[in-house]
Amino acid sequence: MSPFIAEFIGTMLLILLGDGVVANVLLKDTKGNNSGWLVITTAWGLAVFVGVVVAGPYSGAHLNPAVTLTLALTGKFAWAMVPAYVLAQLLGAAAGAVLVWLMYFDHFRRTKNPDHVLAVFCTGPAVRNYISNTTSEVIGSFVLLFTIMYISGAEVTPTKVPIGLGSVGALPVALLVWVIGLSLGGTTGYAINPARDLGPRLIHSLLPLKGKGTSDWGYAWIPVVGPLAGGALAAGLYLLLQ
User: Fold this and answer.
1) Three state DSSP letters for 133-196
2) What is the CATH number of the domain that holds 16?
3) Nearest to 219, CA basis, from 94, 132, 92
4) Nearest one of 148, 151, 155, 159 to 59, comparing CA atoms
5) How far is residue 134 from each of residues 55, 129, 140, 189, 222, measured CA to CA in Å?
6) Number of independent structural domains in the chain
7) 102-114 confidence digits (pLDDT tens)
8) Domain that holds residue 211
9) What is the pTM of this model?
10) What is the DSSP letter of 81?
11) Which of 26, 136, 139, 161 shows the smallest number of beta carbons within 10 Å?
12) Given a cut of 50, is residue 154 above it in pLDDT?
């Protein structure tokens, strides 16, 4: 499997399972309807586990443009490979969102609340304040990326597999994403991943969902800029402390 395909499939599985749990909790007449935040955060952590297990041996399992940027900024990943990884992540996220739509097709049709439909695909703030919303995404992403740098260790040894979440280990990353969701996710829904939000939001705007409402493009820059800024800060502090 090529690194591009691995990033595509790994991110697709991440979104299929991650957005899938949101659909199960929020959409009408599902078995998991109204099962709550703990279910969502737990499944998102396990979704990361699945994506990392599949993609790790082939691409390093970045699954997130903020991870790719942070590793490039710290010299652990080649800049020349960044565009291909980010493109694969965005396409994989979009594909995963389409699969969620197909999986929950009947339940989307029964759900009349457009906010619940949108929430399946992308994040949104509990309280809309662009400054504090951006700050929340920066802080959550900083915790993710800064911790990952220390789990993976300061030294990079030659390997045929590019460094990424796969070199950290699937279980530690899953637990890290889980605790970020439980502790820091209540403000914006913790995108902490530009591809996770942007790809599915685009699919939401394109799908023929009856009464779906707006895709909230006015907010869409925050789950992109916030994680990238958080990753850049994590990279800067990591390099400063070496």
Assistant:
1) HHHHHHHHHHHHHHHHHHHHCCCCCCCCCCCCHHHHCHHHHHHHHHHHHHHHCCCCCCCCCHHH
2) 1.20.1080.10
3) 132
4) 159
5) 29, 8, 10, 12, 6
6) 1
7) 999 999 999 999 9
8) 3-241
9) 0.93
10) G
11) 161
12) no
